[in-house]
Amino acid sequence: METQDYIVDNDGNFRFTMPGLRSQAPLLAKAGINALEIKTYPEYIQARQAASPYFLEYFREEADVELRDKPNTLEWNAIRSIAFGTAEEQLKMLGKLRLKQTLKIV
């Protein structure tokens, strides 16, 4: 079995590809797992399950890196709010977006 992130050979040996190691090692590390120590596909599945409680934190950090140089607009903040905000923050952002739509400058 071979994906962009890992390879499992005919003997069941598991290894990450370089892109897979770059993308998954930081998430697994949050759960105290060294990605290089995963040797079988079942170990990989177990590691992913152990790391799942940390996924949102990891995703937020990755998004912050990706969006660092993007404009700090209301729309980008709305996307962040949808992904990471509380229900209260989302409603507040929705109100700001609606207000912006009603304020058409001529």
What are the SSEs and their pairings?
Elements: E1 6-8, E2 14-16, H1 18-30, H2 41-51, H3 55-67, H4 74-84, H5 87-102
Antiparallel strand pairs: 1-2
Helix pairs in contact: 1-2, 4-5
Structure description:
- This protein is mainly alpha-helical.
- It folds into two domains: 6-54, no CATH class; 70-102, no CATH class.
- The protein is 60% helix and 6% strand.
- It contains five helices and two strands.
- It has helices at 18-30, 41-51, 55-67, 74-84, 87-102, and strands at residues 6-8, 14-16.
- It has a two-stranded antiparallel sheet.
- α1 packs across α2 (41-51) and α4 (74-84) runs antiparallel to α5 (87-102).
- It starts with 5 loop residues before the first strand and ends with a helix.
- The mean pLDDT is 87.
